[in-house]
Design brief:
Layout (H helix, E strand, L loop, with lengths): L10 H8 L23 H10 L6 H12 L1 H17 L4 H14 L5 H21 L5 H29 L17 E5 L1 H4 L9 E7 L9 H20 L10 E2 L12 E3 H11 L2 H8 L2 E5 L1 H10 L1 H4 L7 H17 L19 H15 L11 H10 L5 H25 L10 H10 L4 H23 L12 H4 L3 H6 L9 H19 L4 H14 L4 H9 L1 H13 L1 H9 L4 H5 L9 H14 L4 H24 L5 H31 L6 E7 H4 L9 E8 L14 H17 L10 E2 L12 E3 H10 L3 H7 L3 E5 L1 H16 L4 H18 L15 H15 L6 H11 L4 H24 L11 H9 L6 H23 L7
Parallel strand pairs: 2-3, 2-4, 7-8, 7-9
Antiparallel strand pairs: 1-2, 1-5, 6-7, 6-10
Helix pairs in contact: 2-3, 2-4, 3-4, 3-18, 4-6, 5-6, 5-7, 6-7, 7-9, 14-15, 15-16, 16-17, 17-19, 22-24, 22-25, 23-25, 23-26, 24-25, 25-26, 28-29, 28-30, 29-30, 30-32, 30-39, 36-37, 37-38, 38-39, 39-41
């Protein structure tokens, strides 16, 4: 069949058509063609038309032009041409609806190939409807967006359903699959605005409704949602023999480099309130709930309304947007003059992003006061801005027209080979192919594009140029004007001694000062950061890290402002940020077993003992930092942090012990008999530490009658295990080039300081059965074997259980406990305003009460919560009394955990900064430090009375 001749099409008319006068969904594709592309490769065009059995007519011309100028459409016609012939005469709206219905009805087993087949057919149908003028731009982008939403929703629910059926999502059943168990997907960017381009990736933020889960289910639910999002992403983006569905980008979420792919709505809300930047505000103009729990997603967007839409006229947003534009140009090298060759349609001068920034920035300026401006679409935004007088009607009309034309050109660039590119071809030959696909004469098309770039640039650049009447001073002036002296002394700090460090720091300093100025008390935040900066031994690497990852600068400012003590630690150990960049910083918590395995593998890869000790310290510091940051940012609560700190310490001891034994045995021979075990006591035994905890340990061995070791330098058995224990303590607590691992306390061993540092099992058993004081049996309630010979450990655990199960003289236990309380009160009277550990009715007193109940009940429970349950039952407390003392324990632990993270110094309201106060009060349900102080005092007084009534008042036995 003859192909249509190459004709020169009036470019102005073509651009007018790009404005899209209306929708063509009520007519079929075959009967509504009003323009056709031109074939660049006529042989390929003939093959495509012939393969479909077409002769002449508009449909044949459309297919010829499409296949002859687009490799991608040619391939789609080859694969799905028969399907196209089946739907080409149907109403386009029916075809669109069928796409969405078939997406929704795909079975889990057919999901991957089914979505990919549908994507191919959507791309083919939308491409032909676009090229043939059957649909306006909004119809094309609308179908692409609707299909993306439907595909995302289907892939998400399949992933969540799998989690629910595997019982991995707490409390959720098949009835919850329809709302994805409370997981919502927000579409950002062009997908959120219903403007998805032809070969776009999709920008998603995945949030879950944490209110659907109890606090003790929170961690498990978060892990399940993270897995679901990863599976959803794989279903959409993995390329198979069937192709792919959508490239999926999750990096628009809060702090993308340091947060999991699914985060709670509460955490996201707190982030935007505290750290949200102008570009994030602008991004949420287009955001919409696209998949999963749509109602929860819409509710979340409503909560962000004050963040996106400021109540005042926000002219400062202009400078922020201008700076962003310049940074993009610098980053992409887009300062060259506009041309029809190699120009970036999206980011280049006069491109799509210029119009979007122009529109969104004006919306941000006034949208807080005028809800009518809060629309998602770019063309729609221009229309409303014109109606409200913020933009002239002529400007709005011209920019809308140019925006549509640029988007059409973008689609054709992407249609050629299904590439996510916005760059025009770099040769005249390839530009001719593009022009033909657009149905244009190459010279006329080149001239029209270049004129459009210049026109858009002129219309938008004046608005952003510095010195504009609407330009406002950046908020960092709030810091620099008041604290110039502090900023000036930074020049003399070690971190800024090199010219390179100074150069990098100058570039990041404005962002830093803006962040400090946003703090509740800017001067206080600046002073805290000053302490961090002063402690840095060097700056080039860390400043480069901040520059490449600005969210890390937000993180460090947050840390030093809230927890100066942790900030000082960071200044001395800045390499911990490497763990954040590593990508797993917010992945699932691996637990003690996973941590032990990971550290053991790392240590096994080193041959030098000192290198192993150093590596253990670096490794533990990174994980310790992670727990602290998670706690600081509300990702985990105090109880979870306590468990994770304990997991970390347990794994460090457990992984180090074999290497300590191996190194010691190389000199003195293998351990005589069965070897030894390490027993965690105190808080480590109870699996709850804080950020500053030391480790209570004892070592028990079983020599099985062997008198000496067999090695190059044999030792008597007792001396062998004593020195082995000392080697363990040194491995953990001695300062190396990388500092200490933990402080170790061994005073809970039999006979305390007077006894040997390692105890034989038979002697341990005899001592506990015949000589141990009540306090030693109370301590034993929290004992836990964490390392060493497995069989010996099981035997010791069995002995502990038998010993604790023995019937006690209640009166004698009460007398001993009363004496212990009196001694503690004399040694550490406590009672300071925020000292929640020492003193009557406070944490130490509650722990002693719980251990007493567990001992009298013969209960083997170790953790405080379980021991309190045993005590409440044994002492027959009322429901109100039981709940009150458990609430008191939670209150005191929350304060203790937060206080130790903030600083090792005593907590006072005079020395606690604003951010630290906010962190401290966040989970306590109180509004001020004064209210917290009163709550602590009142609670301690009540609990002290309850304990006095139950086990007797603190009295000395003489």
């Amino acid at each position: 069949m003859p192909l249509p001749p190459l004709e020169a099409v009036n470019v102005s008319d073509a651009l007018d058509r790009a404005a899209g006068a209306g929708f063509g969904r009520s007519m079929s594709l075959s009967t509504n063609i009003n323009r056709v592309p031109i074939a660049h490769d006529r042989e390929r065009a003939r093959d495509a038309v012939s393969a479909l059995g077409l002769k002449t007519g508009a449909l044949a011309d459309l297919i010829a032009g499409a296949a002859g100028s687009s490799f991608y459409l040619s391939d789609l016609l080859r694969r799905d041409g028969d399907w196209l012939l089946e739907v080409v005469d149907l109403e386009t709206e029916k075809v669109r609806r069928t796409f969405l219905d078939e997406t929704t009805s795909l079975s889990d087993g057919d999901l991957a190939p089914g979505l990919r087949q549908l994507k191919r057919r959507v791309a083919l149908y939308a491409g032909l409807a676009d090229l043939g003028g059957v649909w306006a731009l909004e119809d094309v982008t609308g179908l692409l967006t609707d299909f993306a939403s439907a595909a995302t929703d289907r892939a998400l629910k399949a992933a969540v359903a799998n989690e629910i059926r595997r019982k991995k999502l707490p409390g959720q059943t098949d009835d919850d699959i329809e709302v994805a168990g409370g997981l919502s997907v927000l579409a950002m960017g062009k997908m959120g605005a219903g403007e998805l381009n032809y070969s776009s990736d999709i920008d998603l933020i995945c949030l879950y409704d944490e209110t659907r889960f109890d606090s003790d289910e929170y961690g498990e639910a978060r892990a399940s949602f993270v897995r679901s999002v990863r599976k959803m992403t794989a279903s959409l983006s993995e390329r198979t023999a069937d192709g792919y569905v959508f490239r999926t980008d999750l990096r628009l979420r809060p702090d993308a480099s340091v947060t999991p792919v699914a985060i709670s709505m509460e955490a996201a809300e707190r982030y935007y309130e505290a750290f949200g930047r102008t570009w994030e505000r602008a991004a949420f103009i287009k955001a919409s709930a696209a998949a999963g729990d749509l109602e929860a997603g819409k509710a979340f967007l409503e909560t962000l309304r004050p963040f996106v839409w400021r109540r005042h006229l926000d002219f400062a947003a202009i400078q922020d947007a201008h700076d962003m534009r310049l940074r993009i140009r610098d980053h992409k090298g887009l300062h060259k003059a506009a041309s029809h060759l190699s120009h970036d349609l999206k980011l280049g001068q006069g491109g799509i992003r210029e119009i979007e920034f122009f529109t969104q920035t004006r919306q941000l300026i006034a949208g807080g006061r005028d809800p009518d401006l809060r629309v998602r679409g770019t063309v729609e935004g221009l229309s409303v801005l014109a109606a409200k007088g913020w933009v002239s009607s002529d400007e709005a009309s011209q920019l809308a027209k140019d925006y549509r034309a640029l988007r059409e050109a973008e689609h054709r660039v992407q249609m050629i080979a299904d590439q996510q590119t916005h760059v025009l071809p770099n040769t005249e030959e390839e530009f001719t192919r593009l022009a033909y696909l657009a149905g244009q004469d190459p010279q006329d098309y080149a001239r029209a594009l270049e004129e459009m770039f210049q026109r858009v640039h002129q219309l938008t650049e004046g608005f952003f140029a510095p010195g504009s009447p609407v330009h406002a001073a950046p908020r960092r002036a709030q810091v620099s004007d008041l604290n110039a002296e502090i900023i000036e002394r930074w020049k003399g700090y070690p971190a800024l001694r090199s010219a390179r460090a100074v150069e990098i720091f100058k570039r990041m300093e404005p962002i830093l000062l803006d962040r400090l100025a946003a703090a509740a008390r800017p001067s206080e935040a600046l002073l805290n950061f000053d302490g961090f900066l002063a402690g840095l031994p060097s700056g080039v690497q860390l400043f480069s890290l901040f520059e490449a990852n600005p969210q890390l600068l937000d993180l460090v400012v947050d840390i030093v402002d809230t927890a100066p003590g942790l900030g000082q630690h960071l200044a001395r150990n800045a390499p911990v940020f490497d763990a954040v960049i590593g990508g797993g910083f917010f992945s699932d918590w691996p637990g003690a077993d996973g941590l032990t395995k990971a550290l053991t593998q790392e240590l096994a890869g080193l041959k030098d003992y000192e290198a192993r000790l150093d590596r253990a310290r670096v490794w533990a510091r990174e994980w310790h930092f992670r727990v602290g940051v998670h706690h600081l940012r509300g990702i985990i609560d105090a109880n979870t942090a306590g468990q994770q700190y304990a997991d970390l310490a347990t794994s460090a001891v457990r992984a180090l012990w074999p290497f300590v034994v191996e190194t010691f045995a190389a000199k003195h021979g293998p351990p005589p008999g069965r070897g030894a075990v390490v027993i965690a006591m105190g808080s480590l035994g109870a699996e709850r530490l804080n950020a500053a905890s030391d480790l209570d340990l004892i070592v028990v061995y079983d020599a099985q009658g062997v008198d000496t070791s067999q090695g190059r330098r044999p030792l008597a058995t007792r001396a062998y295990y004593a020195r082995l224990t000392q080697a363990l303590v040194t491995a953990i607590s001695a300062p190396t080039a990388e500092g200490r691992l933990y402080e170790v306390d061994m005073r809970l061993r039999p006979s305390g300081r007077q006894g040997p540092v390692a105890t034989g099992f038979s002697a341990f058993r005899t001592y506990q059965e015949t000589e141990a004081w009540t306090w030693e049996h109370l301590a034993l309630t929290r004992a836990r074997v964490i390392a060493g010979d497995e069989a010996l450990g099981e035997e010791i655990a069995g002995f502990r259980k038998e010993l604790l199960a023995k019937t006690r003289d209640r009166k004698g236990v009460f007398s001993d406990v009363a004496d212990m309380r009196a001694r503690l009160a004399a040694a550490k009277p406590g009672g300071a305003e925020f000292d929640i550990k020492s003193g009557p009715g406070r944490l130490q007193d509650i722990e002693l009460f719980a251990q007493t109940g567990a001992l009298l009940r013969g209960d083997g429970a170790r953790c405080l919560s379980d021991q309190l349950d045993a005590a409440i039952e044994d002492f027959e407390l009322s429901a109100n009394e039981g709940s009150t003392i458990k609430a008191a324990a939670d209150l005191f632990w929350t304060v203790q955990s937060a206080a130790r993270l903030i600083s090792k110094d005593p907590l006072t309201k005079e020395t606690t900064g604003a951010s630290a106060e906010a962190f401290l009060l966040r989970d306590l349900g109180v509004d001020s430090m004064e209210e917290l102080s009163a709550e602590i005092a009142k609670t301690a007084e009540y609990v002290a009375g309850l304990i006095d009534k139950t086990v007797g008042p603190a009295t000395s036995g003489g």
